[in-house]
Specification:
319 residues; alpha/beta; Rossmann fold; N-(1-d-carboxylethyl)-l-norvaline Dehydrogenase, domain 2; 8-stranded mixed β-sheet; 15 helices; globular; binds nicotinamide-adenine-dinucleotide
Length: 319
């Protein structure tokens, strides 16, 4: 295992993702410097972090009295230099835009100590491009979280052409030490593994609604109670291996491969959402019974309550 000695973490950008990373790092015992160009964003971020901690304590993931200590570990600043100069690891979460990210990387690279890893939360941009703005591209990498990073286990680590193996390994070790599940994406693509898979599934989910094969609400139910539930435990490849019985994946491919191919031939392949589908999605959401019964806020709380129950069972409890 590569050596890592991380005590202080810098979070650049305090929006949806940045404040949640800051919650995670402080909760796990690290000192955090949280930076944003917008004072109001920092103030709002602190209020949200407090709420996150209340939620974690409600879910018995931390003790109530710990929340204050955790908050004490977080300092906020509008100065990038102040944020990164003493950091042992940097996580950038500024808007999804090359010119903003490259400028932030250029400055962070010039202010931070030369060994400090600079990781980006980007969902679609390429590290090969971002790291061109730095003098030490080997220490730059993508560590893409799933929202919200303080709850969702997955972090996808994606190196650019100039990222060193050591940077990838130390980032992975750090994420695992934080209790995350890390995967390494070996080649850069448009979007990470999880986002590409979600995009492939969503296109067909939209198509089923657009073609009138099923209502939007039933499509969502089918995913959550069917493949989504199974995939939460075991991925698609191992699922189909088990589906092949004693013959495993080889038998599955011979036996049920042709059926799968006939399905693939009938799936949607468009790359622009058809206008009819857009209309049907908006109508379907408007009629959704869960939104009639609950406000948006209540639905988020309901989702997070259930999500945390699952995360506890699948990732936090020892078998
Ligand atoms: N929102 C998601 O679901 C999600 C999931 C995974 C990854 N991401 C990635 O996380 C990153 C941030 O997304 P977000 O949803 O948190 O955005 P956001 O708009 O909520 O937050 C961005 C924050 O960056 C601040 N900012 C702007 N310019 C800055 C600068 N030069 N220096 C410091 N701070 C600056 C803004 O004031 C804002 O508070 C993006 O790269 C995005 O792709 C987002």
């Amino acid at each position: 295992m590569m050596e890592m000695n991380i005590e202080k973490v810098a979070c650049i950008g305090a929006g949806v993702i940045g404040h949640s990373w800051a919650t995670l790092f402080a909760w796990k015992g690290y000192r955090v410097a949280l930076q944003d160009v917008d004072e109001a964003a920092l103030k709002y971020a602190l209020a949200r972090i407090r709420k996150n901690l209340e939620f974690l304590s409600e879910k018995e993931l931390l003790r109530n009295e710990e929340a204050e200590e955790i908050l004490q570990r977080i300092e906020v600043t509008t100065s990038l230099r102040e944020c990164v100069e003493a950091a042992d690891y940097i996580q950038e979460s500024v808007p999804e835009n090359y010119s903003i990210k490259k400028e932030v990387f250029r400055k962070a690279d010039s202010f931070a100590r030369s060994q400090t890893i600079i990781a980006s939360s980007t969902s679609t941009l390429k590290m090969t491009e971002i790291q061109k703005a730095t003098r030490n591209p080997e220490r730059c990498v993508i560590a893409h979280p799933w929202n919200p990073p303080h709850l969702m286990p997955l972090v996808e680590i994606i190196p650019g052409e100039k990222t060193s193996r050591e940077t990838v390994e130390v980032t992975r070790n750090f994420m695992e030490a934080l209790g995350k599940v890390s995967v390494i994406q070996k080649k850069e693509t448009v979007g990470s593994i999880g986002n590409r898979l979600a995009a492939a599934l969503w296109r067909e989910a939209i198509n089923i609604v657009d073609e009138g094969i099923a209502d939007l609400e039933d499509v969502d139910k089918a995913v959550s109670a069917g493949p989504g539930l199974r995939w939460a435990v075991i991925g698609p490849h191992l699922s189909y291996h088990l589906g092949g019985g004693r013959g495993g994946i080889e038998h599955f491919l011979d036996h049920l491969g042709p059926a799968m191919e006939s399905r693939w031939r009938s799936l949607a392949s468009w790359v622009t959402i058809p206008p009819s589908a857009k209309r049907r999605l908006v109508e379907g959401i408007r009629r959704h019974s869960m939104l009639r019964e609950r406000s948006m806020e209540e639905l988020i709380k309901w989702r997070d309550d259930r999500l945390v129950k699952l995360i506890k069972i699948l990732y936090l409890e020892k078998e």
